[in-house]
Amino acid sequence: MYLILDTADMYLILNNADMYLILNAADRYLIPNTADRYLILNTGDMYIIPNTADRYLIPNTADMNLIPNTADRYLIPNTADRYLIPNTADRYLILNTADMNLILNTADIYLILHTVDMYLILDTADMYHILNNADMYLIPNTADRYLILNTGDMYLIPNTGDIYLILNTGDMYIILNTGDMYLILNVGGVYLLLTTGCINL
C-alpha cells in the first residue's frame, strides 16, 4: 500500500483545486470531477465513463448531450432540436423529449436516464449504477464493491474488498485503510500521518 503526497502539485490522492479524488487499489481508479461532472471508474480494463471498451458515454450537463460510441457509430441526441434515433442493428434506442434522454442498449444492457441534473447509468452485466444529482454522486459496483458519495466537499469511498474510507470535508482529508490502518489529516497545509502498520512514501 502506497500513499503518495506531492505538496508542490497539491496531490494527496486528492487534488482539491480541480476537485479530483483518485484512488488506485490494484489498478482501479475512481475519479470524480465535480466541476465538469465526470465520473470515471476503471476496474481492470473497463471504463464506464467515458470509455467502456470501445463505447463512450459522455454526459454534458451544459449542452445536455449524450454521446455513445460503439465501434465507429455515433449517436448524438440534441435536446434543442429533439432528435430520436433508434438503431435496431446495434439495438440502441435513444429517446430525447426536452430535458429527458433515454438510451437503452439491449445487447450490453445500458440504461441512461437524463432528467436535467440527474444521470442514471445501469449496466446489468457488470452491475454498475451511477447517479448524478446536482453535486451528489453515488456509484455502487457490486462486483468490486465500490461506493462513491460526493455531497459538496465530502467524499466517502468504502471498498469492502480492500476496505478504504476517504473523507474530505473542507480543508480536512482523512484516508483510512482498515487493513493497514492509515490516517492522513490535512488541516491548512499541515499533514499528519498515523498508522499502526507500515507507510511507504
Tally of individual domains: 2
Compute the separation of the termini in Å.
9 Å
Residue share in helix = under 10%
Count of helical segments?
Answer: 0
Largest sheet: 9 strands, antiparallel
Rg, rounded, reads: 19 Å
How many β-strand stretches? 23
In the predicted model, the low-confidence regions spanning at least 5 consecutive residues are 1-201
- Name the assembly state: single chain
Q: Output the strand order for the largest sheet.
A: 11-12-13-14-15-16-17-18-19
Structure class: mainly beta
Shape: elongated
Mean model confidence by pLDDT: 35
Which band does the percent of strand residues land in?
over 45%
Write down the secondary-structure element order. Answer: EEEEEEEEEEEEEEEEEEEEEEE
Can you describe what's shown?
The protein is mainly β. It folds into two domains: 1-45 and 143-201, no CATH class; 49-125, no CATH class. The chain contains no helices and 23 strands. It has strands at 14-15, 20-21, 23-24, 29-33, 38-43, 46-47, 51-52, 55-60, 65-70, 73-74, 85-87, 92-97, 100-105, 110-115, 118-123, 128-133, 136-141, 146-151, 154-156, 164-169, 172-177, 182-187, 190-195. A nine-stranded antiparallel sheet has the order 11-12-13-14-15-16-17-18-19, with no helix packed on it. Strands 3-4-5-6 form a four-stranded antiparallel sheet, with no helix packed on it. β12 (92-97) and β13 form a beta hairpin. The chain starts with 13 loop residues before the first strand and ends in a 6-residue tail after the last strand. The model is unreliable at 1-201 (pLDDT under 50).
